[in-house]
Design a protein that fits this description.
The protein is of the alpha+beta class and 153 residues long. Helix content is 31%, strand content 20%. A four-stranded mixed beta sheet has the order 3-2-4-5, covered by helices on one side. A two-stranded antiparallel sheet has the order 1-6.
């Protein structure tokens, strides 16, 4: 079957709001990585991050999965030297799933290890707790590398 262009009304939800051209879609995706909402911060006091959560989002792990999927990309983009370990645990039974940890271990440069509990929390709440705990500096608009060209009317 030859390639057919999908009408805009029938486009999947993940494509809605994106530009039509392939190059602009890629640029928009890069902009989302470099400047996802409330995630563009420099973590100068952090030595290492460890995320521990379940493979599946049931029983309160959805917010941590969303944090890992969206916010952590931006954190890593602005902190490329920061080592980040992600441990996704496979749980076979419901009892194991209920007892599975959903935490972020923040290893600070002064040697302390702080823990952020992520169970039953939204990804923006987890990000805000990480910012408050580490005293992170917001990346200025001059430092942001945005790729989509600005169109002036």
């Amino acid at each position: 079957m030859p390639y057919q262009k999908i009408p805009k009304a029938l486009r999947p939800l993940y494509l809605k709001g994106l530009p039509a051209s392939r190059a602009l879609k890629q640029a928009h995706h890069l902009d989302l990585i470099s400047n996802f909402e409330n995630s563009a911060y420099k973590l100068n006091t952090v030595d290492k991050l460890e995320l521990i959560f379940k493979n599946h989002s049931a029983y309160g792990h959805f917010g941590m999965r969303q944090f890992w999927k969206y916010n952590l990309k931006t954190v890593y983009f602005h902190n490329p030297d920061l080592p980040i370990e992600v441990k996704r645990i496979e749980c076979a039974t419901k009892e194991e799933q209920l007892q599975c940890p959903c935490i972020i271990k923040v290893h600070l440069k002064d040697g302390k290890v702080e823990t952020i509990e992520g169970k039953d929390k939204h990804s923006s709440t987890i990000m805000q707790q990480l910012i408050d705990l580490t005293g992170a500096e917001k990346v200025t608009s001059e430092e942001l590398d945005l790729f989509v060209p600005k169109v002036s009317a």
